[in-house]
Amino acid sequence: MRDSGDTFHLAIPVYDLAEAVEFYVGRLGCKLARRYPDRITLDFFGDQVVCHLVERPAAAAPPGLYPRHFGVTFRQAADFERLLRLVELRGIPVFGPTSIRFEGLAEEHQTLVLRDPADNLLEFKHYLDPRMMY
Length: 134
Prior knowledge:
This protein is of the alpha/beta class.
């Protein structure tokens, strides 16, 4: 169904485009594909994320990981480790510490959660058994 040339698309809200560019391009290393007055389009690890400018809510509840977050599941452990080093080197704040979930089970995986300036949560993970990715 999905060809390797196809791209997953996700649109998310942001409150400040300059902050979004700094976080996604300047810190995470994503490629800025397009910029308009009301949105930016990013190459987010091979997929497309569009950050749409919205007004900051007057009183926002603190974000929780569930039910809404997005990210990348790395097939290779080395790619996950490279991201961990990038986060450390650039001092990117984490939402929660890197952890191992479902330890000792087939679905065991490492996970890292970041929070962007608009409180969107990004989860990055790597499964020991690649068959557990889906």
